[in-house]
Amino acid sequence: MPIIRAPNNGQSLALLQLKKSFAIDSSSSWFCDEYGGTVAYPKTEYWKEGSDCCSWDGVTCDLVTGHVIELDLSCSWLSGTIHSNSTLFRFSNLQRLNLALNDFYGSSVLDGFGRFSSLTHLNLSDLGFSGLISPAISHLSNLVSLDLSWNGRAEFAPHSFDSLGQNLTKLQKLHLRGVSISSIFPNSLLNRSSLISLDLSWCGLHGRFPDHDIHLPKLQLLYLGENYYLSRNFPRFSENNSLIDLVLQSTNFSGELLTSMGNLKSLQTLYLINCRFSGSIPASLGNLKSLQALDLSYCQFSGSIPASLGNLKSLQTLNLSDCQFSGSIPASLENLTQITTLNLRWNHFGGKIPNVFYNLRNLNFLYLVGNNLSGQIPPSIGNLTNLHYFDVFQNQLEGAIPSPVNGFSSLSYVDLGYNLLNGTIPSWLYTLPSLVELDLSHNKLIGHIGEFQFDSLEKIDLSMNELHGSIPTSIFELVNLSSLYLFSNNLNGVPETSVHSNSMLPKIKSIDLSNNNISGIFSWNVGKNTLFYMNLSYNSISGFEMHPWSRMKILDLQSNLLQGPLPTPPNSIYFFLVSHNKLSGEISPLICKASSMKILDISHNNLSGMLPHCLGNFGKDLSVLNVQRNQFHGTIPQTFLKGNSIRTLDFNGNQLEGLLPRS
């Protein structure tokens, strides 16, 4: 005969009072939807008076006694404060309590939480708790899982964290990420043979991590990252271990990696980012056949990469960037068929890039920036159909840019800058549908710039090459373009926009076409509300049409063939450089509206008339005023603001009279 439990009206009333103590606000649980992989919704909205609370969402009762034994209100849009008299603390039979990912900003971990003597699982993560954590937490002797993480303003009182480690002898999971502990690492935690998951990242731990071997046979996750003053050598684990994730990033751990680390046979994640480890990588690292993510970046490792890393066939991420590795890149990396990210940037690798990419079909990100790699880009790179980032910036690569065989259709970022590449820009670079950034600067490329077929581009940098011909008209159809750098080439002609020029390049911020052979009248009406930097210097431009750019800060027109009156810069201008042209006539008084001017250089022209007295009143930021080698007459302005920033005044080569103003 089934057991029929009577409804407990007292529990229902207490839960309804708990519901009323909080407001419902969807923004309180935004993290669940954005990053948590859980759909947040207001569970308590479905709690109704007159119904059995054991059927309510988030509530679980004992089938025999009817007592509420589990309360899961995580991701429930709750907002408010938990007070010491909250009806939450009446549920003395609770075995599991999960309030995670709500907004209880200003609340704290109160003594009341210590009343749940039967509690085995307590999750109070990411609630906005602050203040001292009640030492009563350490009295919950039945706790198997405790998660207080991401309560960045909460802290343990001195010695209370030690008590927690000593008293909670059944703990399997202890997650305190972001909670302030600010103490040395307690030895007692390393005696908890029951521990499976330990996360003490961002806790302010300091001193020396215990030096003895770690004998925690069940431990799978150990996170100690971002404890900047926690130190020791690489921890030694017994051969009988179950470790899956080891994260020591941004700690003060140092020394060389141990050969014995090859015993971590179950390890899937090893993050040693931004530590003080040094020396070479032991070949035994290649024994970690389960490893999926290896990140040793921003350390002091040196020497060559052992060929044994090619044994890590489950590896998806390999990041050895910003170290001091040298030698050649091992050909054994061709065995890493599951790899999605290969980052070897900013080391001292030399020799050729090995032709190992035929089998690396899952590769999304390839970073070889800042090494001494030479030779040609290997043709097998052209098979990478899933590649998004291709970055070999600042090496010594030479030869032509290879054409893809079947790959490159997914490329978003291409940076081949600062190499010795030659030949023409291959046609496939103009037809990539998802390309966002293209940087081929500082090479030896020749030929014309082709027409771009898609408008996804945000940055183009083809500067410091030997390109010639005119600027392609398709540039003006790139509605997402924010940066255009074509300086120091042999580009010529008159760059012309279409008749719809008012809508051209609506997001452009920076344009540099300097040091080319561009001629004629420059009349680009682009980036009306976005353009802040334009450099057209060292060309043969004879006319310039000024537009009402509302955010223009730097305009460099020096060393051209500009004729006619001085263009009046936008009022927002900081640096206005127009020296070494053929400008004539008087300066318009409208220039006085540029009150934020820092540098004004109009030297080496044929300007005449009197200098506007407002030139001394631009503001306290004016540091350079250069009007030399013109035909100005009259008196030198004497009205410079008190406390000005003037560093250079040059009136030489005019017909001006009067004393230089005092500093």
Task: Describe the protein.
This protein is mainly beta. The chain is globular, with a radius of gyration of 34 Å. The longest helix has 12 residues. It starts with 8 loop residues before the first helix and ends in a 6-residue tail after the last strand. The mean pLDDT is 93. It contains three helices and 50 strands.
List the helices and strands and how they pair.
Layout: H1 9-20, E1 23-24, H2 30-36, E2 59-61, E3 68-72, E4 78-79, E5 96-98, E6 121-123, E7 130-132, E8 145-147, E9 153-155, H3 160-167, E10 173-175, E11 197-199, E12 206-208, E13 221-223, E14 229-231, E15 245-247, E16 254-256, E17 269-271, E18 276-279, E19 293-295, E20 300-303, E21 317-319, E22 324-327, E23 341-343, E24 348-352, E25 365-367, E26 372-375, E27 389-391, E28 396-399, E29 413-415, E30 420-424, E31 437-439, E32 444-447, E33 459-461, E34 466-469, E35 483-485, E36 490-493, E37 510-512, E38 517-522, E39 533-535, E40 540-544, E41 554-556, E42 563-564, E43 575-577, E44 582-585, E45 599-601, E46 606-610, E47 624-626, E48 631-635, E49 648-650, E50 655-657
Parallel strand pairs: 3-5, 5-6, 6-8, 7-9, 8-10, 10-11, 11-13, 12-14, 13-15, 15-17, 16-18, 17-19, 18-20, 19-21, 20-22, 21-23, 22-24, 23-25, 24-26, 25-27, 26-28, 27-29, 28-30, 29-31, 30-32, 31-33, 32-34, 33-35, 34-36, 35-37, 36-38, 37-39, 38-40, 39-41, 41-43, 42-44, 43-45, 44-46, 45-47, 46-48, ...
Antiparallel strand pairs: 1-4, 2-3
